[in-house]
Amino acid sequence: MLPDDPLCRILRVDLSRRTFSVERRPELFDELLGGTGVGVRLLAEGCPAGVDPLAPEAVVVLAVGPLTSHLPLMSKAVALFKSPLTGNLGESHCGGRTAVALRLAGLGAVVITGRSERPLYLAIHGDEVGFRDASALWGARGTGTVGRVIREREPGAGLRSIMRIGRAGERGVRYASVTSETYRHFGRLGLGAVLGSKGLKAITISGKRALPLADFSAYRKLYKETYDMAVETSMMKKYHDLGTAGNVASLDRLSALPAKNLTVRRLDGVAQITGEAFAEGYLGRRLACAHCPVGCVHIAALRQPYAQEAYFYKTSLISYDYELIYALGAMLGVTDPEGALRLMDEVEVLGLDAMSAGVVLAWATEAQQRGLVGTAETDGLALAWGDWQVYLAALDRIVEQPTPFFEALALGVDQAAAQYGGSEFALAFGGNEMPGYHTGPAAHVGFLVGARHSHLCNAGYSLDQKALSEGRTLEPAGLATKLIQEESWRQVLSSLVSCFFARGIYTPELVSRGLACVGCAGDPAKLEQIGEAIYREKYRYKLREGFTFEGLRLPARIFETPSGAGPIDPELVRQTIACVAAFHQEPRAGNG
Amino acid sequence: MRLAIVDSELCVGCQSCMFACARRHGQGGLAASCIGVKSAGGMRNGFTVVVCRACFDPPCARACPEDALVVRGEQGGVTLLPDRCLGCGCCVPACPYGAVFWDDTLNKPQICDGCGYCPSFCPHGVLAAERRPKKARPPAAAAEVDHAP
Q: Is A274 exposed, middle or buried (0-12, 13-18, 19+ CB in 10 A)?
């Protein structure tokens, strides 16, 4: 790293004492790049072993990488924390302007600890750090209001990020999210609840500094190459045209779209909630993250009349993506696009993770249908597939928790099923609610063994589709190797920090050239080693915090409903998990 | 040459133009950028794109007590004479568009020189480089209407 690169600066904030300091750790970034790599090390160092994720001692790390703000699509910020949902490694990635703002504020990472007696928000503008009173913002109905207030009170328009939690985070819902720039999120694994437990309502960061380069002319050439790949070629086309919502029709055609709590894998009426249907009927605007020319963020404009007064309308601008349509549409049997959009809007207002919320409500619906719970538990609600009004009411109750049943739902589907039964159809993997891919065994093993139990860990779903299209059968050792290789390489991308949509652009060779431009060493072979080292380090943290491969629960439902690749063989799943477990348990020199 | 905003509704807020401007000035980061893309009161409302309008009678130049901003010829706009600039910042609020940007490191304004590099990094054609026709310049101060009573 260049000696004057501010990436090595780590801002440490103690909310209990309202103090901050800056520490320089260039060796850490030289070893682990930044982002996920640096974040997991700082988490392991700062978070006491076995700590309650919602205790003041638990730390939150936000980190960016050496290529952030230098190259297009290198615009993700990574959060590392102990997840209150899984009780283990929490990692979440956010787009918007967070990463670039953090980097141009002259920082590589922020480490937050403690708990404020009174709610506050942090204002980080370059070298200035302010602890601003947020007691009047605590309890505000929507995340939008909080954003609006901070936008008007703080400087840095156009150069800042405003990350905030909603009521769900304040109320400790274990899958509460953090919203950034209205439409982007640290969505998964409950960062919102962690910030809520710290009395931290929001963080705004801004900066506009210059960054050093080692070889400017090589950099300009490389920039043009990557920019042209993103804009002029077809590599990013699917993301900017229909966006990820284009997957709805594809997965339904493959019989791989989990619907109605995965009782079915295709959905009647799906044509109304495809990416094509949303684009034609509702697409009102497209947005981009900072320094990304792709513009994959799709915003629907929903015009709704007020019942009590003629010629009065409310126009809501609602972000939609594949994951939201899956979780709040297909999983709940909601095929009315306006109903699905209302649910997406409500999840945004409350600050909930859409995927977890949808899966939790899908389980609750089936539990009520099977008589495991009645209207006494559901506060009078009769949950039914497709009834989006009742789901709107249920989302509010997950946050307000008027009955013990909703308190249980706020803990996640695993916990709810442990209390009320029905774990065989509780669709969580490693404690994290299922993403929308029932493509075959690789997807499910991928969720199970991925360090954050996400489809993004290793893209098992794409291995399923590749095997299917090539007419191959997956076998355990080969599948385990592929999943490990992919997850290892993704540690490099998430340490730089690249958007995973750009994984086709950022090959090891290109990453290596990028690092050389900013004065960092890293040939492709070295990068592979770094990726594997980070992957192993994440697992060491998981094992330290009590994770076991033997303790992984396989929901019976995934074997009952055939996948896009046909029925899933439980033995293949178990054997593949065993192969991954062996990889993490084998002793390796230098890795402890 | 100056920059034309073809249609700000096409802007997705990617800020590629801002980074292009800084690169054109030989820098990484944004300190050297003379373009501002900011949400119009939240991302839901789209974006405001702030670029120098290359005025013929630029208020920024009139506000400079050191005559460090020199009015350019028939294409409008100003050129910064850095040796004359004391870093007082009077030029910044003088621009009604907010298009005089500030480089905190140098403590001097960043002035668009109309080079036309940034439009080639706008993926949606929001920006265009525009050469003004000859005689576009309006009649000078004599033609101004005097509103004094």
A: buried
When pLDDT is averaged across residues A39-47 and rounded to a whole number, the result is: 98
Nearest to A230 by CA among A324, A326, A294, A314: A294
User: Which comes out higher in pLDDT, residue A587 or A327?
Assistant: A327
Q: What is the pLDDT of residue A521?
A: 86
By DSSP bridging, strand B28-29 and strand A109-113 are unpaired
| Structure confidence by residue, pLDDT tens digits, A524-544 | 999 999 999 999 999 999 999
For residue A239, give the amino acid letter. Y
Contact (Cβ atoms closer than 8 angstroms) between residue A316 and residue A247: no
Q: Do B14 and A159 touch (CB under 8 A)?
A: no
Residue A355, token pair as written in the block: 């995927």
Tell me, what's the pLDDT at B135? 65
pLDDT in tens, B96-105: 999 999 998 8
Q: Are the beta carbons of A158 and B32 separated by less than 8 Å? A: no
pTM for this entry? 0.96
Q: How do residues A358-407 score in pLDDT, each as one tens digit? A: 999 999 999 999 999 999 999 999 999 999 999 999 999 999 999 999 99
Return the structure tokens found at A557: 């439902």
For chain B, say whether A290 makes contact (Cβ under 8 Å). Answer: yes
- Separation between Cα atoms, residue A27 and residue A31, nearest integer Å: 6
Q: For residue A510, give the 3-state DSSP assignment.
A: helix
Contact A109, A22 (CB under 8 A): no
In terms of Cβ atoms closer than 10 Å to its own Cβ (0-12, 13-18, 19+), residue B23 is: buried
Angle between helices A337-350 and A143-153 (to 10 degrees): 50
User: In whole angstroms, what separates CA A370 from the centre of its chain?
Assistant: 32
ipTM of the complex model: 0.96
Tokens of A240: 């900017």
* Cβ distance of A291 and B16 shorter than 8 Å: yes
Q: Does any CB of chain B come closer than 8 Å to the CB of residue A286?
A: yes
Q: Using H for helix, E for strand and C for coil, what is the string for A39-54? A: HHHHHHHHCCCCCCCC
Please give the angle made by the CA atoms of A544, A550 and A556, to the nearest 5 degrees.
Answer: 130
Closest CA to A441 of A423, A466, A414, A413: A466
At B139, the pLDDT band (50, 70, 90 cuts) reads low
- Say if CB A77 and CB A99 are below 8 A apart: yes
